[in-house]
Amino acid sequence: MFQxxxxxxxxxxxxxxxxxxxxxxxxxxxxxxxxxxxENDIKExxxxxxxxxxxxxxxxxxxxxxxxETSLRSKDAFSRKxxxxxxxxxxxxxxxxxxxxxxxxxxxxxxYSRIENYDCTIRxxxxxxxxxxxxxxxxxxxxxxxxxxDGSVRGAYMQLEFSxxxxxxxxxxxxxxxxx
Length: 180
Prior knowledge:
24% of the residues lie in helices and 9% in strands. The protein is of the alpha+beta class.
């Protein structure tokens, strides 16, 4: 157990007229543009380690912990696209990793008849963090700085339309979950 600080999104007056946003690309070249309208609300928190991962249930707690081995190695995940031999090492590593994750999820959740990957994002913290905070890094997406939810009910349908274009009729009136 230890004490630390967590950055939460402040309940700012600006959100009465603007939706919260943050870009993942640089807008420095656009006069007057903002990359984010976020303000931090820093809170002291106590972090307690998980001693029994099996106590967390997806249906009861909204998340679970799956301990599993994959063959993904950080050197492959963080390799640059366009390797010298003409292959895309990172893309190949992601593809192999996804097949392994899909098998792990099918084993853990046999109730799911179909498991689809729509996002495999490799994130690597900028070495200048926290001294310099960038939301944009041309090489890697940055890990989130604050607790957040990646989706909402409305956003789930928007993500499906974006990730699986032309399949709206397939998803219509179906029960599905989006797991992260």
